[in-house]
TrEMBL record:
Keyword Repeat in annotation: no
GO biological process: phosphoenolpyruvate-dependent sugar phosphotransferase system
The keyword Nucleotide-binding is annotated on this UniProt entry: no
Source organism, top-level taxon: Bacteria
Record-given protein name: Phosphotransferase system IIA component
Length: 159
C-alpha cells in the first residue's frame, strides 16, 4: 500500500563469457558517450549471448543484432551484439527468443558468429545498455575483469 518492501534494485548479470569493461571504453561513440544510456560491454569469447536481466522480450531487431528487454519495473535494457553489425543484415546472428516472451537472467537470447563478425571488419563487442535512465538512481561500477555469462555485474538502484 505504501510501497514498503518493494524491491528497489535490479540484478544485472554478464550477458556473455569474455572480458567485462566499462561502457565508456567501447570504440563506438554512441555507446561510449552514453548517448543511449549507461551499461557495460563485454569482449566475447563465446558465441552464446544470454539475458542480463529478467523481464519480457520487447524488441527483436529485424537484423537480429539487438534485442530489447523490459523488466517488471519498466527498465528497458538493450543487448547489442557487435559494433556496426546492422549492416550484416542478420547473417551472423541466430535468435532463440520471441517478442513477448518472458525470460530470466541467463535465458539464451542469441548466437553470434564472432568469427564472421570479425571477418567483416567489425568488432564483436556485446554492449548492454539501460536506455531509460530516468528510472535509475545508480548503476553498478564496472571493473575490467574476465566473466562468465551469469556472473553478477551488480545491482541497479531504482529511484
Amino acid at each position: 500500500m505504501f510501497g514498503f518492501g518493494k524491491k528497489k534494485t535490479q540484478l544485472v548479470v554478464a550477458a556473455v563469457d569474455g572480458e567485462l569493461e566499462p561502457i565508456t571504453e567501447v570504440t563506438d561513440d554512441v555507446f561510449s558517450q552514453k548517448m543511449m544510456g549507461d551499461g557495460y560491454a563485454i569482449e566475447p569469447t563465446t558465441n552464446e549471448v544470454y539475458s542480463p536481466v529478467s523481464g519480457v522480450v520487447s524488441t527483436i531487431f529485424p537484423t537480429k543484432h539487438a534485442i530489447g528487454i523490459t523488466t517488471d519495473k519498466g527498465l528497458e535494457v538493450l543487448v547489442h551484439m557487435g559494433l556496426d553489425t546492422v549492416d550484416l543484415k542478420g547473417k551472423p546472428f541466430e535468435s532463440y527468443v520471441k517478442q513477448g516472451q518472458k525470460i530470466s537472467e541467463n535465458t539464451l537470447l542469441s548466437k553470434m558468429d564472432i568469427e564472421a563478425v570479425k571477418a567483416s571488419g567489425r568488432e564483436a563487442t556485446v554492449v548492454v545498455v539501460y536506455t531509460n535512465m530516468d528510472l535509475i538512481n545508480e548503476v553498478p561500477e564496472v571493473i575490467k575483469s574476465s566473466v562468465q555469462h551469469g556472473d553478477n555485474v551488480g545491482d541497479i538502484k531504482y529511484k
